[in-house]
Design a protein that fits this description.
The complex is a heterodimer of chains A (about 475) and B (about 300).
Chain A: H1 3-6, H2 29-37, H3 40-57, E1 60-65, E2 68-73, E3 76-84, H4 85-109, H5 114-117, H6 123-127, E4 149-156, E5 162-168, H7 175-188, H8 192-195, H9 204-213, E6 225-228, H10 237-247, E7 250-252, E8 257-259, E9 265-269, E10 272-275, E11 278-281, H11 304-309, E12 314-316, H12 327-330, H13 333-341, E13 348-349, E14 353-354, H14 358-366, E15 371-375, E16 385-386, H15 392-404, E17 409-413, E18 419-424, E19 427-436, E20 438-441, E21 445-447, E22 452-456, E23 470-478
Parallel strand pairs in A: 3-23, 5-13, 6-7, 6-11, 11-12
Antiparallel strand pairs in A: 1-2, 4-5, 4-20, 8-9, 9-10, 14-17, 15-16, 15-17, 18-19, 19-22, 20-21, 22-23
Chain B: H1 5-37, H2 47-52, H3 56-62, H4 68-76, H5 85-97, H6 106-121, H7 128-152, H8 157-181, H9 196-206, H10 210-216, H11 223-232, H12 240-251, H13 258-273, H14 281-307
Helix pairs in contact in B: 1-5, 1-7, 1-8, 1-9, 5-6, 6-7, 8-9, 8-11, 8-12, 8-14, 12-13, 13-14
The chains are: A alpha+beta (about 475), B mainly alpha (about 300).
């Protein structure tokens, strides 16, 4: 065993590659053995090769700060995270079940609102939410599906059990990094691909295309699909360009599109206007159509909602989908599964206290030092308080915030998140991680084998967001024994 | 496979800016040579370069005198003046940044390297010692990008709009260059028998066409013959006639090309009417002005036909 692995601690948290006894887990045996046998300097060489590949492939993400936008190279850890296909099957089934239930919910909310009438979900938390868009009432998109692309964040607790932490139904991002991570690993650790049967991920763009194409209002062999981006200054522009190229479709900005008097969307081309059937929008719905939402939006397309409501164009995700992407609504997903599907939830949700309920609020305020407090309506890890890592001053600030606007806060227990070996400087150390698989739902549904693993590179940290010092790992779903 | 108007527009400007960077470098290099050859008495001044590029208003906002240092700093090292080499390179780069998916993979890398080189070297190349090396490096890097594009870009819309920008800019810059020879712009009355051949030779050199001129026309460099050669020689890739013929080839397969072709037709007829033999220097200068106005009209026709059409 080389030096870098010698002091690897075991047994503190659930480690996904190493058992409490310090042995590699079955599915990870090949990876761990190979990496432990590499001479120490070769670990460093492989890491250097990965960094070179990242630069050459131009994989970057954008960080915003006062000095402007900075393009940073993608932070990547060379040690893959390994999950057995048997275990993954259960997770994948659970994710599809969730996606179906969430889509039933959105369809119901914008139509009959049965679940509110039956008192399963309190009406006010849905109808008073900023994510509920009255403009979408009465709409019924194809297949009754609103959230075609869902990115759900999963974590594993001290027993290795998977939990859903949140469902991103607006414009979830990160899938291009999942694909690039695999490309990098193939270059850096090619020998592992000989002995392992690793489920491939690189067909994601074609699954995405099929899902989008299935939504087309016109029956055509090759419907006109476009990716709508806010432009080069958006932090995920790299991904927008990547996916458009991967699907062989146009990457458009708002000004490339127009809605004519026939309530139909056209893109401006050198051959004149070309009708657009499906828009994969990577712009927030608030900016989508200045006629209906923010009038000051320069990024949107005036009339887009008209065209969508007239059924002349499909939009993924449908405007209004965000109503189910809310940390208060999240607490009711298990109820939704039972209500709409008459099934038992296959995947666990994290127990959630809703500060809007008096009893819950009391409990939360008394246990701030033990809980994770989250705003109901933020993403990117902003505005979160991790109780055990917080100072008294921060806890006082959050207590005030909660009392001022209880609807806007939820709290969850601090989970003992799983770890995986991560190569930091010259040593392999455990670091906490999460996982974002992507669920596609159109005519059929499909889940990425694995997803984007994000890892908190700072020792002991639970914050995995790349904007806040997180890195990532390739995620392997492996079949059979190694 | 069609192309978004916005992408076509960026490619067109990429073609223009890349050519502008190269031609500005050529212009400065040629003038630099010329000035060293001219006897003091002829008193050529540096601000001619600013006048050729129609940049006087901007220039005199920043500088009081049009001397060597100021003019060359303005054209070679001023990142924000629209007549400078760094500005043209940066604009070319910005246009590639958002069209990378339709261009060969090396394009971004090469244009980015050119950009970094210019940022790094421009400031210290204003002085006489490094000046020529810098200009030559810019020219050769631009040529590398053009060579790579012409050997690997499929002949579809991407190539077409790049090429349209490239050809239109080249016609424009070539006519501007000829205006130097027209003398009017030099503010010199009458003919200077002694220095005229020097001027025309340096202009041919700026167009990399001196050798071709000697082979095709002869060793004697005379104003009228140079003008005919540079404007009308159909076989010379830098001649205006050649550029306009190529523009026609690129416009032909495009839909909705009537307006642009009409404007181009007027340009080609005007070109055929050029008769340096019977023209005074003033007339020639006037002719060049009119010709440039026609090129601007052609640009507008391209813009309104394919980039910003009236919404139906």
């Amino acid at each position: 065993m080389n030096e870098s692995w010698k002091s690897y601690p075991s047994g503190t948290f659930f480690d996904e590659l190493i058992t409490a006894k310090g042995q590699p887990r079955e599915a990870a045996r090949g990876v761990v053995r190979l990496l432990q046998k590499l001479p120490g300097d070769e670990m460093a060489e492989r890491r250097a090769a990965a960094e070179l590949a990242i630069r050459e492939m131009g994989i970057s993400f954008t960080v915003y700060n006062e000095a402007g936008n900075i393009d940073r190279a993608w932070p990547f850890d060379i040690i893959p995270r390994v999950i057995s296909a048997r275990q993954w099957q259960g997770v994948s089934d659970g994710l599809r079940q969730r996606s179906r239930a969430l889509n039933h919910f959105i369809q119901d909310i914008y139509n009959e609102q049965k679940i509110l009438a039956d008192g399963v979900v309190p009406a006010d938390i849905v109808l008073d939410s900023a994510n509920f868009k009255p403009q979408c009432m009465g709409m019924s998109p194809r297949f009754g599906v609103w959230a075609h692309i869902c990115g759900s964040d999963l974590v594993r607790d001290g027993d290795g059990r998977f939990f859903v932490l949140e469902d991103n139904l607006r414009v979830p991002s990160g899938v291009s990094y999942m694909l690039e991570n695999r490309e990098i690993t193939k270059r850096v650790l090619p020998e592992l691909f000989e002995n392992y049967s690793i489920l491939p991920v690189d067909d994601y763009p074609s699954h995405l295309y099929q899902t989008l194409a299935s939504l087309s209002p016109r029956e055509r062999r090759r419907p006109c699909v476009v990716v709508l981006t806010p432009g080069i200054f958006n932090s995920a522009y790299f991904e927008h360009a990547y996916l458009a190229q991967g699907m062989g479709v146009e990457l458009v900005e708002g000004r490339d599109l127009m809605v004519a008097d026939d309530d139909t969307v056209y893109m401006r081309t050198v051959d004149g206007p070309v009708q657009v059937d499906v828009i994969y929008r990577r712009i927030d719905e608030e900016f989508m159509d200045p006629e209906v939402f923010r009038a000051d939006s320069m990024l949107g397309v005036p009339g887009l909602m008209r065209a969508w409501k007239a059924g002349n164009v499909a939009i993924a995700n449908a405007p209004g989908s965000g109503v189910a992407d809310d940390k208060v609504v999240y607490a009711f997903v298990p109820e939704m599964i039972r209500y709409y599907l008459k099934e038992k939830p296959l995947l666990a949700s994290v127990p959630t206290w809703l500060c809007m309920r008096e009893k819950d609020r009391e409990y939360v305020l008394q246990n701030l030092d033990k809980l994770v407090v989250k705003p109901a309506n933020e993403s990117g890890g902003y505005g979160i308080m991790v109780g055990p890592h917080s100072t008294a001053a921060v806890r006082r600030k959050f207590a005030r915030l909660i009392e001022k606007n209880p609807r806007n806060y939820v709290a969850q227990p601090t989970l003992a998140l799983s770890t995986a070996p991560t190569y930091i400087d010259d040593v392999v150390e455990p670091r906490h991680l999460d996982l974002r698989p992507f669920i596609l739902q159109g005519k059929d549904s499909w889940v990425t084998p694995g997803g984007l693993t994000r890892v908190a590179l700072t020792k002991g940290s639970l914050v995995v967001n790349s904007s806040q010092g997180g890195g990532s790992k390739d995620t392997w779903i492996v079949e059979g024994k190694v | 496979m069609t192309m978004l108007s916005s992408v076509a527009e960026r490619l067109y400007w990429m073609g223009r800016y890349l050519e502008r960077a190269e031609d500005t470098a050529r212009l400065v290099a040629a003038y630099n040579h010329l000035i060293m050859d001219i006897p003091r008495a002829a008193e050529l001044s540096w601000d001619v370069l600013v006048r050729i590029l129609d940049a006087e208003p901007v220039f005199y906002q920043q500088y009081r005198v049009g001397n060597e240092q100021n003019v060359l700093r303005f054209l070679m090292a001023e990142h924000d003046s629209s007549a400078s080499i760094p500005f043209a390179v940066r604009c070319a780069r910005e246009n590639v940044r958002t069209t990378r998916d339709v261009l060969p993979e090396e394009t971004w890398e090469q244009i980015n390297e050119l950009h970094l080189y210019v940022i790094d070297a421009a400031e210290k190349s204003v002085g006489r010692r490094n000046r020529q090396a810098f200009l030559e490096e810019v020219i050769s890097r631009c040529q590398r990008v053009n060579g790579m594009l012409s050997s690997s870009l499929p002949r579809d819309h991407a190539h077409r709009f790049l090429r349209l920008g490239h050809l239109l800019e080249r016609s424009d810059m070539t006519t501007r260059l000829m205006d130097v020879g027209a003398g009017e712009i030099l503010g010199r009355p009458g003919t200077h028998e002694a220095i005229d051949p020097l001027i025309w030779t340096s202009l041919l050199q700026a167009l990399s066409s001196f050798g071709a001129y000697r082979r095709m026309i002869g060793p004697l460099v005379e104003a009228k013959q140079v003008l005919e050669f540079v404007f009308q020689e159909p076989l010379l890739p830098r001649s205006v006639a050649f550029c306009l013929a190529e523009i026609r080839t690129e416009l032909k397969p495009l839909s909705n090309h009537e307006k642009a072709l009409r404007t181009l037709g007027r340009g080609r007829r005007k070109l055929a009417r050029l008769d340096p033999e019977s023209m005074s220097r003033e007339e020639l200068h006037g002719y060049i002005d009119e010709f440039q106005a026609l090129l601007a009209e052609l640009h507008d026709a391209i813009t309104v036909s394919w980039f910003h059409p009236e919404t139906p």
